[in-house]
Amino acid sequence: TLLDQECINPTSYSSQLEDSGCDVSSDYAFDSLGIASDVHQSEHNVNTSKQWLERVLPLNLCTMSKEKSLTAPVQFLQHLLEIRKLSEGGILQADFRELENDSLTICDSVSQLLDGLTVFYSNPTFPFSSFLTEAVCVLVSLITDTKLSNHVLKKCFKKLEEFEKNLIQIILRTGSVNRFQALHALSHTLILLGRNSILRKSLISLLLPEVRQFAEQLLQAHQLQAKYDITQYENIFPLCMILEQLLQNQAEERNVSSSEYDEEGKIKFLKSLDQIILHLSDEFPLFSLYLWRVSVLLNSAQTA
């Protein structure tokens, strides 16, 4: 399906990217010169193997442990979605009204799934495993299902909103050399969550103050001719792109009214924004362009 293809894309994208880091350890540099004696070479091989085992094995075991913790909730929710599809086609009779009376298992599974995904994204390993992609697809299918989504949102909205907040903070704070692979996957996941109109509204409300706050901080640094954090500057662009995409998606839905926006958050974001864009446009043209495009989308929704 189209949803499955969209879920798979980030994995294939990330797997094509190579590690840009370089091994500049003293052991490697010493060995590459060909100076070490046979005895030293043997000691070097033993030490290198030991260091490799100490460094790699815990990482692999940690990854396996992460996937194992996600297996049960993912499988349960997959089975629930399959039952839902079979019941819709008339192949199986199932009364989903009982979910209102017995929802503990579903809520626990969703909570475990969100916690597991947060752990994955907090300390990602490349390339992303197919299991991570599968887990994201299950989550998106659950929140976009016509019958199950309302129940899940009713019981798990706070947990889902907490998950959104966590992913946004991970995007803002990540500083690794190869973080752009992770940023791409995180952005894609948030956009997929925005397929649900309620979660999209929540996401927009969370993103607006983050982008506005950074714009004000950047303006202050610019006016004082002070240094700014280049990593934070680079990390703000995924949030701008997510925000723009969500606003575009919302504008394309005919049944969305301007009242569904967070009016207070929108007013705060737009206040004196033209002046901020004007002052930043020369030195930060791309960021200023994103601010302007977001403001246009917000204003067009207001007049719609």
TrEMBL record:
UniProt cross-references to PANTHER family, sorted A to Z: MEIOSIS-SPECIFIC PROTEIN MEI4
Family recorded in the similarity comment: Belongs to the MEI4L family.
Pfam family, any one: Mei4
Keyword Kinase attributed: no
Keyword Iron: no
Entries under InterPro entries matching the protein: MEI4
Organism this protein belongs to: Ramphastos sulfuratus
Cellular-component GO terms for this entry: lateral element
Protein name as catalogued: MEI4 protein
Assigned keywords, A-Z: Meiosis
